[in-house]
Specification:
Strand content: under 5%
Radius of gyration: 21 Å
Helix content: over 70%
Number of domains: 1
Largest sheet: none
């Protein structure tokens, strides 16, 4: 995710808009990670329930979905995107400081 060019120093509305954009990007990433974890665990739970209720053959769909969701989460986990995340946090902090300096 690319961070756009910084807003002009004299335009508080542009600073607020840039800050809102960065925070929204972080919120979307958080939703993605939480959704993948939830899908993974619910898939594994569904596989367990299906295996107990109907036998081991019924567990395959839930097991596949759960494992794939957890693998995707592992591939996209926040630690893997640490450089991008750190850069965006630094940009948010810089924008907050610029907003505090405004009268």
């Amino acid at each position: 995710m690319a961070v756009e060019a910084p807003a002009p120093a004299g335009d508080p509305a542009a600073l607020h808009q840039a800050l809102a954009r960065l925070l929204y990007q972080q919120q979307r990433l958080l939703w993605l990670h939480q959704g993948l974890l939830l899908l993974g665990f619910l898939g594994l739970l569904a596989a367990l329930v299906a295996a107990l209720a109907q036998g081991p053959g019924a567990a395959w769909p839930g097991l596949v979905v759960g494992i794939l969701a957890l693998l995707v989460y592992t591939w996209l986990r926040p630690a893997r995107m640490q450089a991008d995340f750190s850069r965006q946090v630094a940009e948010i902090e810089r924008l907050l400081e610029r907003l505090k300096e405004r009268p």
